Amino acid sequence: MTSLEAGVPEGFGPIFRTSPVLEALGGFMSRGDGEALEIGLLVGPDHLNARGGLHGGVIATLMDVATGYMLVARSGGRRRITARLTLDYRSGAVPGEWLQVHLDRTQEDGRKTLAYARLMAGERLVAEASVLFIDAPSAKA
Predict the structure, then answer these.
(1) What is the per-residue pLDDT across 75-102, written as a single tens digit (0 to 9) for each?
(2) What number of other Cβ atoms are within 10 A of residue 68's Cβ?
(3) Is the CB of residue 59 less than 8 Å from the CB of residue 87?
(4) What's this model's pTM, rounded to 2 decimal places?
(5) What's the fold here for domain 5-135?
(6) Nearest 5°: phi and psi at 118?
(7) CA 35 to CA 47: how far, in whole Å?
């Protein structure tokens, strides 16, 4: 176990569904499923900006991916597409810190879902987001 891996809470492992961008960034993790799905990130060297802190684009990616995956898990597989991400940065993060996304609440209106989430490093608020999702178009035959 590396010193960075020591900061991962018990039960978390590599994220259950990945993509080329998540593979390139690395460190995205999950545990549980359905209503109990949790998503986090162990901040590593590949997540840093030129000043050595967590890059804001990584925070945006984490918030977008985590809220989307959590909504799918809680809705029994209903797929959505991100239409808007509003992000307020509150503090920074450094290598070795464990960050976890908390989905606070959602509002549904027809084919739109608005999700509100927080990114936490322990008790410290790192970012807050509201993410507007729309239902994904049905696959055409």
Answers:
(1) 888 889 999 999 999 999 999 999 999 9
(2) 19
(3) yes
(4) 0.90
(5) Thiol Ester Dehydrase; Chain A (3.10.129)
(6) -125, 145
(7) 28
